[in-house]
Amino acid sequence: MGLFNRRVQENTAAVATLDVDPALAALTGDYVIDAAHSRIGFTVRHAMVTNVRGAFEEHEGTLHLDGADPARSTASIDVKIASVDTGIADRDGHLRSADFFDAEAFPLMTFRSTEAAFLGGDAYRITGDLTIKDVTRPLSIDLEFNGSATDPYGNQRVGFEGSADILRSDWGLTWNAALETGGVVVSDKVKLTFDISAIKQA
């Protein structure tokens, strides 16, 4: 279900209006991301032939949802770089090093929204500033609203999933190595993925 259902009213001419879904308008409020049931991940091509997948295991964030006017919704997320996990300790250590994220000098990756838009159906787009290694650039994330539910503990939850493609070099992540057969070890293009469960605050 979308935040809006479009309805056409006919007077002397057809006029498009927005009919707010009361159930979704009721979701308006402030939410905290439940890190235990959320995932911020990435996929990057390795050696030109396969994909490496990983995630950042430690993150926190808040959402403000406006069910009546999605453009007024906001998001703020902080990700602990040192929590990167690809399943191989040596690779994770390399990612934390100065060759890549330099986690000791730049411990956080942050996202602060600047704009939100309803695209139709369950689709939304949130745009904001992504900061990695003190480099801040705009990022748009396409999201799908997965719905809302009350969990067994009485918490009202909402869920979103989405993704965005970036070029890591835009944020100063430029380390690479050439392959003897041509190409490079790590692709510049990275897909970021988001599976978010958030709990409404009283």
In words, what does this structure look like?
This protein has 202 residues and is mainly beta. It is built from 2 helices and 13 strands, in the order E-E-H-E-E-E-E-E-E-H-E-E-E-E-E. Strands 3-6-7-9-10-11-12-13 form an 8-stranded antiparallel beta barrel. A two-stranded antiparallel ribbon has the order 1-2. A hairpin with a 2-residue loop joins strand 10 (123-132) and strand 11 (135-150). Mean pLDDT is 90; it is low at 1-18.
Counted by DSSP, the helix tally is: 2
Following the backbone from N to C, one meets helices and strands in this order, namely EEHEEEEEEHEEEEE
Low-confidence stretches: 1-18
Q: Terminal Cα separation, in Å?
A: 24 Å
Mean pLDDT: 90
